[in-house]
Amino acid sequence: MISTGIFALLFALCAPSSAQEASTAPAAGGEIAVSTAAAELPGMSPAKPKRTPGVYPTAAVPISGIVLTPTAYRGRGRNEIGLGLDFNAAYYIGRLYGKNSFNWTLEKKNYIDRLGVWFITADGKMLIQTEDAWRPAMAAGAQGTFAFRDSNQNPLNANVQTVAVDDKNTNTYATAYLALTKHIHPKFMINAGYADGDLSKSIYMLSEFLSERALSLNGYTGREVPTGAMFAGFIWLPRPNNPLAAEIIIPQGAPMSPKLINLQLGTMLKLNFQLSYLKFDGGWDLLGMFQFRYSHFPK
Asked: What global pTM score does this model have?
């Protein structure tokens, strides 16, 4: 009996130790669960979350277009397959300075001339490819533009008897396009595309030296403008509400080889006043303009 009591006492004393060992024993299969949560050390700030490659925040302003040309983005940069609709107004108020080298002009320089050309555009697009880390966003769309003058076109300062310019004061233009846009940096985007339609023709409203009368003086018979045009540009967002941007429009095979560069620089001064550079065979013009874009869908 005494020996039995002694064994019972020893078993009772060893039971807690055995239970503790059982609780820390390896699980079935020999695996041991280990916590990966590390205790925060005093004075250390939490690590910043890493940005997912190819995922960019939406902008505070519409980036669905630059000035006259579209981008592949919808609204403020929503990276989802779907439709987008914008309305854009561009007003070329006048020529600040220009030069020409035509042998039929009396003046080779032009200063502060009224232009007064409006382009009111509706731009609808379909984002058909989203953007990722290496792939650009791609959109196909169409633009419809109503263009008009609020003042008469400047006459040609020519040394010939007939110098009047009789181009129409109103025009309608339709253009289909394909655009590719890619973030190089969360605040910097590049854009390129091809337009087929009347985008090239709209440039000819911006200078009397591209009028039909001026083309005839330069040896062209009529003004047959091909439908194709290349465009490219960039958008930079140094501040959320103040984008800086530029675009170039290059008509393919057009008479006088015009090229239009629009610079969206006025936002540096919190203004909508922009500058444009129009280059053509035999001269160039520096233009002043205003531009407003409203993204109707998506917001």
From this structure: 0.79
